[in-house]
Write a structure and sequence with these properties.
The protein is mainly beta. It is built from 1 helix and 12 strands; from the N terminus they run αββββββββββββ. The strands form 3 sheets. A 5-stranded antiparallel β-sheet has the order 3-4-11-6-9, covered by helices on one side.
Length: 132
């Protein structure tokens, strides 16, 4: 399991017979953005991103794909369906297709996560949920 997490954290991606290794530490955080998304790799079946949340991610769900989230740095409060809980570096969260989710980092710090989504994510299946 530890090896798997290290592999995910460094986003080792196999593409067309070659390996591409990306070090997520090299992604610069732009604090002027509420949410910063950096695509790592993908194909029609899966996509991977490093997402830096400086403010919050509004409640939403995905109609056509599931998402795996591994917290790389920081901590925050997450909503997953009817549950609310704290997440921190080292935590793994599975978000099933169609389940409402949102996240807000702790005040004054960014939350950096590795997000792997299958099938590939293009933004078209994201449905925002009005705030209560």
């Amino acid at each position: 399991m530890k090896y798997l997490l290290y592999t995910l954290a460094f986003a080792v991606v196999w593409q067309v017979g070659k390996t591409q290794v990306l070090d997520y530490h090299q992604i610069r955080i732009d604090t002027s953005l509420a949410v910063q998304v950096s695509r790592l790799a993908g194909d029609d079946n899966v996509s991977s991103f490093v997402i830096v949340v400086n403010d919050s991610v509004q409640a939403h769900f995905h109609q056509n794909h599931a998402e795996h989230v591994y917290v790389l740095e920081g901590s925050g409060s997450m909503r997953l369906g009817d549950q609310r809980f704290e997440v921190k570096a080292g935590d793994f969260v599975f978000i099933p297709q169609g389940v409402i989710h949102a996240v807000r980092p702790r005040k004054g710090q960014a939350l950096k996560v590795l997000s792997i989504q299958a099938p590939a994510f293009d933004g078209s299946d994201r449905v925002l949920v009005p705030q209560k």
